[in-house]
Input
Amino acid sequence: MFSFSFNVSENSQDGSEDATAQDSSIDEFECIELKIPEGLRKGFAIDPDNLHVFLASVNMQVEYINCLTIPKEDLSQEILNAEIDHSDLIPGRYEGGLKVWECTFDLGELMAENEEYQKFFADRAVLDLGCGSGILGILAVKLGAKNVDFQDYNNDVIENVTMKNYSINCCGDDTEAGEYQSKTDVRFFAGSWSSFTDHVDVLQYDVIVTSETIYSNKSYDQLIRLFNTKLKPDGVVLLAAKTYYFGVGGGLRQFEQALIDCRTLSYRVIWANVSGVAREILEIRRIIPQQAEEADAGDQTVLLPPAMTNGKAEGTEEAGAELDAVGQEAAGQEAVGQEAVGLEEAEQEAKVQDSVHQEEAHGDATEQVLAGQEAAGQEAAGQEEVGD
Output
């Protein structure tokens, strides 16, 4: 059985995984389409003890394979080398697709529980980018997507995990699973993002869902180019990630700066977890030409205002109100700062005035002493004249 080890850095401040990356000059894998075996289209039976269950909402769940139960002989040498090296990833060879990272669950719950985001998927074309176990794409199928494409870097992740998870949840004689299968066209791709962008024959997607894909800032150019190429003008990207990735250099603030620099995509934070490991979800959209002209003119208002919620997203109206309130609070930070500056200036002015008053009081006292001394002197002179 496959027993994969993931390192956790003892120096991580928030307890997040420290993905141990290794430098590699090996050419990236060319993207290829993998056909799902006919047997998997009829359903896939597996020992329930080898499955995990993700309860995305009270009425929607995804079963997925426990990757520790995958036989070693079914895995490529690249993944086995990662196991030997105790690495979460080996750039250019293995990109961590066998582990389900916690941000996947964050985005999955948002998709399944929030009515506003549920509407994004019905009859839409969806890409699950860096899909790994395929949980987000499977949820898109269950939410009524018309087309779902699954993409991951390693073909054995797609063949041994993604396809089987799709089969378990969406294929077979089960009435519900069969209904999903008949309504959604699915495809599976393995290879690099740049190759996928250049060679995959697809128009564009209404929705791109992706989780834990910005851990390395070296990949940002590829990712942004994919968004610009594969996202419809009115499409949306839902990206879930940790705020900081220790050990590999990436994080949401760096990625947001890359989005600002590209000047073609806008973003906002729609969900955040601030307890424990800091995690967030971004909503990313294309900037229309008029907005791009404003951006070129230096108007940064084309970026959607930051907004956050803590914990799970609530109903649309409640969540929207909370997001607006927090967004206004964030937008008001500058005014608060200006008020603080004003208070500091007022305090300094008060100190100056107090000092002036003290000096004036000291001057008055000095004049009184001098006047007293002069009067005393005059008195003494008068007494001397009387004595004479």
